[in-house]
Design a protein that fits this description.
The structure is a homodimer.
Chain A: H1 6-17, E1 32-34, E2 40-49, H2 50-53, H3 60-78, E3 82-91, H4 97-114, E4 117-125, E5 130-139, E6 153-156, H5 162-172, H6 178-189, H7 195-203, E7 209-212, H8 217-228, E8 231-234, H9 241-249, H10 254-260, E9 267-271, H11 276-285, E10 291-297, E11 303-306, E12 311-313
Parallel strand pairs in A: 3-4, 8-11
Antiparallel strand pairs in A: 2-5, 3-5, 6-9, 6-10, 7-9, 8-10, 11-12
Helix pairs in contact in A: 1-4, 3-4, 3-7, 5-6
């Protein structure tokens, strides 16, 4: 296999992703120009290191897509449409042309899925693949981490649990039922942040606070409770009907997986009671489904589970990266 | 040595750099908010990998500072004041508290030197230290890579040659005179892009085109000539009087070092003849010194050296990273 140089790497990726639309600047100058919109500039960086962030069985294009998804998930939680991305890559000296093409394909997929222009980047050499995605957008309003009031309902944008099970299957070889296996693995390899839902709920002013959940549900709840100086009373775990059955048959601990697993890309948010109906309606219209998991209390920083049968403090710990 | 976790890493760095000024958002939410200014959003990412980008003898804080300098250099060439930076880090599991403090100190130094707010970032685990800096600013006008006309003068923002010699000393143990050695090493460990000069020259409309020179003078000239569809006639190498003497005594090849060496952080620009005087004046006022090295020709893409004694094509090749 012939080694490819930095110049060729850029050319191959550019072939895959193409140049951004006018009036975004062409890739190639020292800096990128991004047309402004109204509001503040919103920025997020997220770095993916293959060894610690790409599970076994993840294809190269899926890894590239995931490196963008991680930041998109934060934009979803804050309700902001991202405009542009810049991608810094460190690639091993021996990387093949085909692998670089696959990276380009993954970036293109993320670009098309989330309506982003890729406006620039940087390439480097390293022993492992490292991808840093800087995501940029503009917004006149974002949903912050504080703003929740006692009585607000706590919702999540979809069921939890599949990604941690998928990781157990891919990394540790855990064996589960075939239909469970498929859903769990897909949730890890092709995570789907609910960007449309996050934007609509923020634009319509439905959320009093929100956070991304990529470090796990428990940690997200704790961070949101601390920032908002309120507490949470969780009365239900956000799982689908089939999930409990699947998990039991596979002898998996549901609490552990749903609360402390990762990497989930759901929105965790609080919604004033009088807006819950509208929020549910909007979610259904977009083909999503909000799961209500509890309500906001006055006890600042306390995250309690209580479903009338079991009652325990949800611990402040979260998803620890692979490797 | 006790291992530190991601949470502690963030705390140590935050202690060193502090929170950004109001109305920039505090570090900690899912995304950063940056107040907009007039004009387009300008963005640049640059990734530093310790193994390939940090020469032997570079202190940890110098490496952290350099990771920001690389992007600042591009902003200098385009004439834009950067507003904010986001920093993604990958750090080895065994990194010490002291090393993380040093990283924070380097970031703070860069922040203060160039008037940047550090508004966010990400931390990860990797075998080598990787730092990706995303630099953001706003500008109503930047100096592009095209716009030069035949007859324009070619200038650089300072002397070339010291960084390549410094790298040879640090990496290969090349021995040179003591005073030469000091200047050469300092130029590598503490590179100083001329941000103030770049901004003033662009704001005053003095430059017809410009480019950053971190891949070496020859490559920058070729890229600028190609983008501008013009040629360059170089009549003088941008070196200081002492440099030639030093280099000869140390048996170093001046052409090779000045044209194809790296990593220089100077601005390479073209200036219409009637604006040269004003540009020189402005540079002197800021304590800098423009070096005129030739003039723009009609022969698109041709970069020729001709000082009346020697005449040769300057090759299109540049700085290759360490390791």
């Amino acid at each position: 296999v012939k080694r490819i140089n930095e110049h060729e790497t850029i050319r191959i990726i550019l072939e895959a992703i193409g140049q951004p639309r006018v009036p975004y600047s062409m890739i190639g100058d020292d800096v990128a120009l991004i047309p402004p919109r109204d509001g503040d500039l919103i920025a997020k960086v997220d770095m993916l290191v293959r060894k610690t962030d790409a599970p076994k069985g993840m294809a190269t294009w899926q890894m590239a897509r995931k490196s963008v998804v991680a930041s998109v998930s934060d934009f979803a939680a804050k309700g902001v449409q991202p405009s542009a991305a810049l991608l810094s890559l460190a690639l091993p000296a021996g990387i093949t042309r085909k692998e670089v093409q696959e990276l380009g394909r993954g970036f293109r997929k993320a670009r098309d899925e989330f309506g982003i222009q890729i406006v620039g980047g940087d390439t480097n050499e390293s022993d492992d693949i490292v991808i840093d995605c800087c995501l940029l957008g503009f917004a006149e309003w974002i949903t912050g981490r504080h703003g929740a009031a006692p009585g607000d309902r706590i919702v999540v944008s979809g069921p939890f649990g599949y990604p941690p099970v998928g990781l157990k299957i891919l990394q540790d070889g855990v064996v589960v039922q075939e239909s469970f296996r498929e859903m769990a693995i897909a949730s890890v390899l092709l995570p789907k942040p609910k960007l449309d839902l996050g934007i609509v709920m923020t634009t319509e002013g439905l959320l009093s606070s929100s956070i991304d959940s990529s470090d796990g549900l428990a940690l997200s709840l704790h961070q949101l409770a601390e920032s908002g100086e309120i507490g949470f009373n969780i009365s239900k775990l956000p799982i689908e009907g089939r999930f409990a059955e699947f998990a039991e048959k596979s002898r998996l601990e549901i609490d552990e997986i749903v609360l402390y697993g990762g990497e989930e890309y759901e929105i965790v948010a609080t919604i004033p009671e009088d807006k819950i109906k509208q929020a549910n309606l909007m979610a259904e219209r977009l083909g999503h489904h909000l799961i209500e998991i509890g309500s906001v209390t006055e006890e600042a920083g306390t995250v309690l589970f209580d479903d009338g049968i079991r009652r325990f403090q949800i611990e402040k710990r979260g998803w620890v990266h692979l490797g």
